[in-house]
Design a protein that fits this description.
The chain has helices at 5-23, 34-43, 49-58, 73-77, 89-130. With 131 residues, the chain is mostly helical. Helix content is 66%, strand content 0%.
Length: 131
């Protein structure tokens, strides 16, 4: 059992460094472009050079900016203040649209139910007259 422990530790460090590199925002990567760091981690992972290099020199490990950051560029460019749903006109508009769709669907279901009930009544009348 213990003879596999070094292999498992190397594998765990390799996976951790790889995932950490992928999840790190581009502005926190030092030295090389992020894609190159991924390649270095994958190529030199078995001998621990790639993962250790990433953990030591690849990532800026200082305080995070006050505004925070997210990996996706869209989120960085579209920061908005929180607005309560009651005050958000877009949300209220979407509720009205959903309500209209739900009412239309309900009317269709009711019409279908009426049609089926009428069809059943006709069948029952037809069977009574045939007897």
């Amino acid at each position: 059992m213990f003879r596999y422990l070094p292999f498992l530790l190397v594998l765990a460090l390799w996976i951790y460094a790889f995932i950490d590199c992928l999840n790190t925002p581009e502005e926190q990567v030092r030295g090389l472009p992020k894609v190159v760091w991924v390649i270095v981690i994958l190529l030199f992972g078995e001998v621990l050079v790639g993962p250790i290099a990433w953990l030591v020199a690849g990532k800026y490990r200082g305080p995070v900016p006050a505004g925070g950051s997210t990996p996706a560029e869209w989120h960085r460019n579209h920061r908005t203040e929180f607005v309560a749903p009651d005050d958000n006109p877009e949300f209220l508009k979407s509720l009205k649209e959903e309500n209209k769709k739900d009412e239309a669907l309900l009317k269709d279901w009711e019409a279908d139910l009426r049609r089926r009930e009428e069809e059943l009544r006709r069948r029952e009348r037809g069977e009574e007259t045939d007897s």
